[in-house]
């Protein structure tokens, strides 16, 4: 099971702030996870259509497309941050 | 490391004078205290802002702010630092963020505060939604913020996870 969190307009487009997901075993990195996730619904496809305008974290650390994903991880998908 | 850095993420306002006084009490080994307060602007270009709502990712915010503070302390030999960041609904004139650095000399305190703000802006997971005369929209990240953060040549995590 993977916990997937969404923030800001990604959350609004997908329509929820958190999902528990069980991707197939061949999903081993962030790139593969996003491919799989964007096929989940039209809303997911819309939110994830351009990964270059998104940022990702795995277990609260920034991640890149080749970062490994395993069972129990917390994945977060969000736009570039605008704090301060 | 956590003892030196005092990090808070809260809905409530903060009192700058009170925070400065609290930090000053930490010890006499400081010759300089620098504080920066970020406020909600009333106008952004031609838009009149009525409300700014900050959303964040609590677990990651805590982790990132501690990492950023630890990096600042190490780089600038800060004696102490304090970071307070608000979330939730805010209005023009409201304080959003407070950074205080304490160092033996002013240069380190000034630079440490600037570094903390530059890194915080590009790494701490906060997002702003603005309500203005033009309706409601998510505030876009500024390239100028990324460039400001890059000038410190981040050794570990790059700004905005790029």
Automatic annotation (TrEMBL), chain A:
Key word Cell membrane present: no
Keyword vocabulary terms for this entry: Nucleotide-binding
Domain of life (superkingdom): Bacteria
Pfam family, one: ThiS
Family to which this protein belongs: Belongs to the MoaD family.
Protein name, as recorded: Molybdopterin synthase sulfur carrier subunit
Species, as recorded: Iodidimonas muriae
Organism placement in taxonomy: Bacteria, Pseudomonadati, Pseudomonadota, Alphaproteobacteria, Iodidimonadales
UniProtKB/TrEMBL annotation, chain B:
E.C. numbers: 2.8.1.12
Task of the protein: Converts molybdopterin precursor Z into molybdopterin. This requires the incorporation of two sulfur atoms into precursor Z to generate a dithiolene group. The sulfur is provided by MoaD.
Gene coding for it: moaE
Record carries keyword DNA repair: no
CDD domains, per database record: MoaE
Segments forming a coiled coil: none
Root EC class: transferase
Pfam families linked: MoaE
Classification of source organism: Bacteria, Pseudomonadati, Pseudomonadota, Alphaproteobacteria, Iodidimonadales
Protein name per the record: Molybdopterin synthase catalytic subunit
Complex and partners: Heterotetramer of 2 MoaD subunits and 2 MoaE subunits. Also stable as homodimer. The enzyme changes between these two forms during catalysis.
Keyword Cytoplasm: no
Keywords tagged on the record: Molybdenum cofactor biosynthesis
Superkingdom of source: Bacteria
């Amino acid at each position: 099971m993977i916990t997937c969190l969404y923030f800001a307009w990604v959350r609004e487009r997908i329509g929820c702030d958190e999902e528990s997901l069980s991707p197939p075993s061949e999903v081993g990195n962030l790139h593969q996870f996003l491919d799989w996730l964007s096929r989940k619904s039209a809303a997911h496809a819309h939110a994830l259509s351009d990964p270059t305008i998104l940022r990702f974290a795995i277990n609260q650390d920034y991640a890149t497309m080749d970062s490994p994903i395993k069972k129990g991880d917390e994945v977060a998908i969000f736009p570039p941050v605008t704090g301060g | 490391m956590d003892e030196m850095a005092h990090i808070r993420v809260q809905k409530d306002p903060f009192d700058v004078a009170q925070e400065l006084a609290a930090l000053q009490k930490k010890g006499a080994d400081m010759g300089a205290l620098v504080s920066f307060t970020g406020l909600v602007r009333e106008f952004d270009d031609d838009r009149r802002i009525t409300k700014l709502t900050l959303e964040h990712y609590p677990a990651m915010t805590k982790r990132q702010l501690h990492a950023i503070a630890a990096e600042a302390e190490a780089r600038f030999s800060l004696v102490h630092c304090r970071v307070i960041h608000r979330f939730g609904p805010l209005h023009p004139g409201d304080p959003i963020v407070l950074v205080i650095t304490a160092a033996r000399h002013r240069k380190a305190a000034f630079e440490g505060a600037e570094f903390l703000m530059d890194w915080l802006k590009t790494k701490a997971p906060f997002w702003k939604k603005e309500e203005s005369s033009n309706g409601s929209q998510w505030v876009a990240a500024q390239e100028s913020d990324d460039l400001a953060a890059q000038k410190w040549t981040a050794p570990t995590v790059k700004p905005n996870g790029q």
